[in-house]
Design brief:
alpha+beta, 19% strand, elongated, signal
Length: 77
């Protein structure tokens, strides 16, 4: 019985670490609101966020991420 509990605990821990490291769970408070910048966007996430803040203000923009296969700068509100 103890071996089963240990293996379940380790499996759950590995799953939680996988979810946290891949950012599968994003906050529901952040929703996509704008696309900003050239395509492909060659900057970092910080560059994207700064561009979003400059263009749309903060708030409503709370974060910016470079996403997608074409490297779009996405602003989240």
């Amino acid at each position: 019985m103890a071996k089963n509990i240990n293996s379940v605990s380790i499996t759950v821990l590995l799953f939680v670490l996988l979810v946290a490291s891949t950012e599968i769970l994003k906050s529901e408070a952040q929703t996509f609101c704008f696309e900003c910048g050239p395509v492909p966007f060659l900057g970092t996430n910080a560059d994207c966020f700064n561009r979003c803040k400059t263009k749309y203000g903060s708030p409503p923009v709370v974060s910016g991420f470079v996403e997608g296969s074409e490297k779009h700068c996405h602003c989240y509100c």
